[in-house]
Amino acid sequence: MEKEQINGQINGQVAEAMPTRADMDYLMEQSKGNMNKILSSMTELLSENDRKVEMLESQTWFQRMLRTITGKNKATKREIQNNHEKISVYISKAITELYQQNCLDREIITELGYRLNDLAEMNVKLKELLGALIFKLNEKIESVRQNQLLTDEIREGIYPSEQPLASLCRILFHMDQRTIFGERDMRLLKKLMEKKGLFAKTERTLQEHLMEIMQIPDEEIGAIYLELQTMPDNKNAEVIRAVIEEYHFLPDEEKKRADQEAIAEKIAEKYTESTPLCQSAEAVFLDLLNSKKNRILVEQAKAYRDGSGVPTDYEKAVAFYKEAARNGDKKAQKNLGTLYRYGMYGFERDLSEAAKWFQMAADQGDTDAEAFLRDLKNIAG
Questions:
Q1: Cα–Cα distance measured from residue 124 to residue 9, given in angstroms and rounded to the nearest whole number
Q2: For the segment 88-103, what is each residue's pLDDT rounded down to a tens digit?
Q3: ∠ at Cα 10 (9, 14), nearest 5°?
Q4: Cβ-contact 55, 123 below 8 angstroms
Q5: pLDDT at 1 > cutoff 70
């Protein structure tokens, strides 16, 4: 029944956009690490990110998809744009079948669900294609008690202190909701990381941090990349994604020949203006952790707002939005500004309150919030 429900939303799409049996066999043969890299690449393509086509064109799954859709292994950016609807159908069907065949890494379900939720919220077509799958993924997004396993791994030295930022990025992915919001759990976890030398307070250059990221095991990089995709406004996440794209997504033979120092230097130069030149591994980790915490708060707010898996409760939704907004989340700040601007969800219209939240988002460079503030001034004046 579940399979019929999900497929029912995809059937009736362009037949030639469906992955072939050989395509699915290839995907299902992949190791967990490769599968996670492929899934993170697929979600980038779903976001209509033309900038990433060059990164993807050497990947076998991408070439197979193009051959199925266009009959060719390669395509220009224009051809990719012209075939984007077929590509969306292909990827949606592929991810759905991988889920149905239990081929998705259990640990990546949460990040994949969040990422697809964000994409569907911005694209009605994707919501039609992926709505049933997203619902199923949301049902499986549960707070599994991973804290004990994580602390055991840290004690056993699985995360080397010689590469503190790389280790902290790996740990961050394994931190679940209950750990992040459990004050006692977080306090003990931070003490353990300090004891093991992972909370390095010594400032290192951006290039040195990027060199570390290139040492993350390949089987873990797809999951980490997918999590970083859910932090679109975080500059540290952006620069780490860039080095993953430039290095980890290279074909294996090219990766062996790649000059890691040159790659790190090029990316560091590109991001020097937007990202602090020198930071400690601890500072970068805490910044990423804050973004992850905000993302969870916003997802909880959306769940109560939409009645997704929980009873609709606008009071709780707004409370979660406010916690994320006070913690610096631009999306939550803008959502609250809109809520008070129009008086939504049973809350009275309050232009002064709307201006307060829009101003907070505008102060962080949100151009939409700046425009909303100008509109409010026109109304007031």
A1: 13
A2: 999 999 999 999 898 9
A3: 140
A4: no
A5: no
The C-alpha atoms of residue 315 and residue 305 are separated, in whole angstroms, by 9
Determine contact, residues 284/209, Cβ cutoff 8 Å: yes
Pure H helices in 71-182: 77-82, 84-100, 109-122, 124-140, 147-155, 164-174, 177-181
192 token code pair? 């353990």
Helix (H, G, I), strand (E, B) or coil at 204: strand
The whole-number pLDDT of residue 13 equals 46
pLDDT digits (tens, 9 = 90+) for 325-359: 999 999 999 999 999 999 998 889 999 999 999 99
How far CA 73 is from CA of 28, 57, 63, 184, in Å, comes to: 20, 9, 5, 53
Label residues 55-90 b or e (16+ Cβ within 10 Å = b). Answer: bbeebebbbbbbbbbbeeeebeeeebeebeebbbbb
CA distance 66 to 74: 7
C-alpha to C-alpha distance for 154 and 175, rounded to whole angstroms = 12
The residues with which 278 forms a beta bridge, in sequence order, are 205
Q: Beta strand pairing status for 203-205 and 278-280?
A: antiparallel
Residue count of the chain, please give it: 381
Using CA atoms, how far apart are residues 157 and 206, in angstroms rounded to an integer? 25
- Pick from 279, 311, 157, 136: nearest CA to 206: 279
Q: How far apart, in whole angstroms, are the C-alpha atoms of residue 372 and residue 92? A: 35
Cα atoms in the 13 Å half-sphere on the side-chain side of 140: 19
pLDDT digits (tens, 9 = 90+) for 176-197: 888 899 888 889 899 999 999 9
**Sign of torsion, CA 294 296 298 301?**
negative
What is the reported pTM? Answer: 0.80
Residue 250 per-residue DSSP state: S
